Amino acid sequence: MSRAKIVAGNWKMNKDYEEGLSLASEIIPMVESEASTGVHAILFPPFVHLHAIASLVKGKNHIYVGGQDCSMHTSGAYTGEVSASMLRSAGASHVLVGHSERRQYYGESSADGALKIAQALAAGLIPVYCVGETKDERLGGQYEEIIARQLQEGLSALSEAQMAHVVIAYEPVWAIGTGLTASPEQAQEVHAMIRGWLRNHFSAQVANHTSILYGGSVNAGNASALFAMEDIDGGLVGGASLKSRDFTDIVKANR
Ligand code: PEP
């Protein structure tokens, strides 16, 4: 199966500039020396750290930097926004789109996600499109329907060729930052469903080649069991990505 194995660290709004550079300076050599070269590690620091950290990863094998968000617009009078092409020019190769915190606190929809994905792809960035259900949606048994809708609204306008440059992250909202992790079986069920959706809407080729990451309280203790599941190609890690030892151990768990 030729899918990229990925472990991504979403730093969210943590670490000032010096702390961020120091964390990246710890993580990069640890991941380089300890992790298998088959795994891609992606750091998602705050925007202001991005260019400096991109300089640190330049020329390193399989270590990348991305933005936590990008504008749905190309350029112009959008105060406070950062465009996909700005991220690219600062050294980013990836961008998170549709993270549940963007959906929850900033009212972002999957339709907004589709616009951001289009911007990212046009700028040469790989979007990591996040989907996932809330606790009520899971308890109400609606999670498959919710996730299918997020996939439909975010991705269905793309071509098969574009899908070769898209990563998906399944992040159950009830598991993000809560310490509650989906069991490997619960996560696998949804990952297989997402892969089935890709097969139906695009092709077997797209389904087989798209990396699908799990996110939600991944840590060094639970990562191996999650990554061992057939359709889980890695993790999107929040809290545990802020500690170099923990993040490196999670990258190592993805063999
Ligand atoms: C995230 O922010 O994408 C995330 C999964 O956070 P945490 O690992 O802290 O749950």
Can you characterise this structure?
The chain has 255 residues and is an alpha/beta fold. The chain starts with a strand and ends with a helix. The model has no long low-confidence stretch (mean pLDDT 96). The relative contact order is 0.16. It has a single domain (5-253), classed as TIM Barrel. Helix 3 (84-89) links the parallel strand 3 (63-67) and strand 4. It has helices at 17-34, 47-57, 84-89, 100-106, 110-123, 135-139, 143-155, 160-163, 184-201, 204-209, 223-227, 244-253, and strands at residues 5-10, 39-44, 63-67, 94-97, 126-131, 167-170, 212-215, 234-237. Helix 1 (17-34) runs parallel beside helix 2, helix 1 packs parallel to helix 12 and helix 7 crosses helix 9 (184-201). Phosphoenolpyruvate binds at residues 10, 171, 176-177, 215-218, 236-240.
Give the strand order of the largest sheet, numbering strands 1, 2, ... along the chain: 1-2-3-4-5-6-7-8
Kindly give the count of domains: 1
- The tally of helices reads 12
Mean pLDDT: 96
Cα gyration radius (Å): 17 Å
Global geometry: globular
Based on helices, strands and strand pairing, what is the structural class? alpha/beta
- Got a strand count? 8
Taken in chain order, the helices and strands follow as: EHEHEHEHHEHHHEHHEHEH
Low-pLDDT parts are none
Assigned CATH architecture: Alpha-Beta Barrel
CATH topology, by name, is TIM Barrel
- Helical fraction equals 40-55%
Heteromolecules bound: phosphoenolpyruvate
CATH superfamily: Aldolase class I
C-alpha termini separation: 13 Å
User: Mind summarizing the main beta sheet?
Assistant: 8 strands, parallel, barrel
Report the β-strand fraction as a percent range.
Answer: 15-25%
> CATH class, please?
Alpha Beta
